Amino acid sequence: MYEITPIGRVESPLLERGMAPRQGDEGAPDAWLAFEPRVRDGLQDVRAGQELLVLTWLDRATREVLTVRPRGEGDRPLTGVFSTRSPDRPNPIGLHRVRVLEVDGLRVKVGDLEALDGTPIVDVKPVLGQVNER
Amino acid sequence: MYEITPIGRVESPLLERGMAPRQGDEGAPDAWLAFEPRVRDGLQDVRAGQELLVLTWLDRATREVLTVRPRGEGDRPLTGVFSTRSPDRPNPIGLHRVRVLEVDGLRVKVGDLEALDGTPIVDVKPVLGQVNER
């Protein structure tokens, strides 16, 4: 067992699960990532135009679920959650590839983020092949 | 604060951090993902040949670090960790894109995994555009 501590929160017009689109490219809204002051130094190289991977903790997900029926596919068999992007899974970590639109101190505006308002942010990584890697 | 519970462990010939290559494509070894019996149903659609994202908890990382000097770049300035893939970061979640080589019940063999032996596995997701999405 490990403890994960949010480094910020999502600010989004998506207020509840029914409002979320199926995938970012189906039209998720722009959102702000509001980071905690204590992680300021970690953000110092984030710039508008970059693509980032935002990892969230999907705090409204159900953790007891191991199989799901993909949405809109009522006649499909149940699928193991590790072969889906369902938020419902034992450790509900969300993974979102986004483009940075604007940076304002501890607030970072990103495009097309499929995450509900208030969702805790737990990590941010560069897309590989871009920015610094190690 | 949230609690993250491992769903399995990495079995790898990489025994300590100095042995890890910088990126998977620089020649990380094949490894086995050994899952816990309680998540068996979640794995039922994992097949050889698929590409997966494996999320790990980098339990030997330092969580107090916000800036790092990219390895092998001694003259470069310190970089904010959220613009690097350094394991040292506030929530040390590792993200590894791998190909499934073999599935043997709760054990899944994958290629080119840059993760130390014993590293906890916390989630597995399909690469987007492949397998089922939702």
Automatic annotation (TrEMBL), chains A, B:
Keyword Secreted: no
Signal peptide (residue range): none
CDD domains attached to this UniProt entry: UPF0066
Record's keyword terms, sorted: S-adenosyl-L-methionine
Region of interest called Disordered, as start-end residue ranges on this chain: 70-90
Domain of life: Bacteria
InterPro entries in alphabetical order: TrmO-like_N (IPR023370), UPF0066_cons_site (IPR023368), YaeB-like (IPR040372), YaeB-like_sf (IPR036413), YaeB_N_sf (IPR036414)
Record Gene3D superfamilies: YaeB-like
TsaA-like domain mapped to chain residues: 4-134
One Pfam family cited in the UniProt record for this chain: TrmO_N
Family: Belongs to the tRNA methyltransferase O family.
NCBIfam families named in the record: tRNA_TsaA
Protein name (Swiss-Prot/TrEMBL): tRNA (N6-threonylcarbamoyladenosine(37)-N6)-methyltransferase TrmO
